[in-house]
Amino acid sequence: MDTRSYPPLPVPPDGTRAGPALLQASNVSAWFGSNKVLERVSLVMEPRKVTALIGPSGCGKSTFLRILNRMHELVPSAALSGSVSLDGTDIYSAAVPVTQTRLRIGMVFQRPNPFPSMTIAQNVLSGLRLSGIKVSNPDALVRECLERAGLWKETRNRLNESGAALSGGQLQRLCIARSLAVRPRVLLMDEPCSALDPISTSVIEDTIRDLVEDVTIVIVTHNMQQANRVSDNCALFLVDGEGEPGRIVEAGPTEQLFSDPIDPRTSDYVHGRFG
Questions:
Q1: Are the C-beta atoms of 11 and 103 separated by less than 8 Å?
Q2: pTM surpassing 0.70?
Q3: Which of 56, 144, 156, 238 has the highest count of CB atoms within 10 angstroms of its CB?
Q4: Structural domains in the chain, sorted by start
Q5: How would residue 179 be classed by pLDDT, with cut points 50, 70 and 90?
Q6: In angstroms, what is the C-alpha Rg of the chain?
Q7: Residue 143: pLDDT above 60?
């Protein structure tokens, strides 16, 4: 990665939001040991828009998502080349602490991962406490984040109960609320609805559309109807053959990829003819 010196990513003071950021990947290739899993991926993820990463299993979508907030480097054998920038700042620069990167670029995983020993309110605030960030009015912040995640009405009388007592869809929204509490500028979501029923999925999708004015969203999904419903832009990842790395074969406005794609493989995939 580029190791030029950059200023640290800005952390907004308590009670403020810096707003959604431009996230850009340029010529990103990735390896696990000697196995190359991504080949020269370039993608612009625009502020105030939802970008969906689509493609069959094993084509590198989730790996790419984790590269966007430096989780890829947690794997001992992992390596990468290329660059990822947040509003022009290289997030892999030696001058940018990884903790600041993950505060600004949050992650919601496929399986909800609340802290079972914490209450609902404590779960919302846990990211702040682990990062050593103090807020002047934590109760107000808990309410705000639960409201933004579409969970306040269901939990306002249960804030001191264990977060583990919630349903699957509620747990996922609790994890979204927890991510929002640290004021991220980008929110990455790795198949957030894959284990949810249609009603919970609809609530999560509504939440995504409500949040996009405040945070750039990048979502991995295997559900083509969901990608069409919630995203503004799409990027299709494919592999050329067994053992080959994943790459983007087409990216652009979602409407174009679904109705008038350039690559015939895109048409085949989004309309269910392979994958």
A1: yes
A2: yes
A3: 238
A4: 23-113+189-270 (3.40.50.300)
A5: very high
A6: 18
A7: yes
Using pLDDT thresholds of 50, 70 and 90, give the confidence band for residue 197: confident
Q: How far apart are CA 231 and CA 228, in angstroms?
A: 6
Separation of alpha carbons 54 and 48, rounded Å: 19
Show the tokens assigned to 214: 């405040």
Torsion of CA 185, 225, 191, 193, to 10 degrees: 100
CA–CA separation, 68 and 91 (whole Å)? 8
Work out the pLDDT band at 119, boundaries 50, 70, 90: very high
Check: CB of residue 107 under 8 Å from CB of residue 188: yes
* CA distances for 194 relative to 54, 55, 197, 208, 223, angstroms: 13, 15, 9, 15, 8
Give Cα 51 to chain centroid, integer Å. 10
What gap in Å lies between CA 272 and CA 23, rounded to an integer? 29
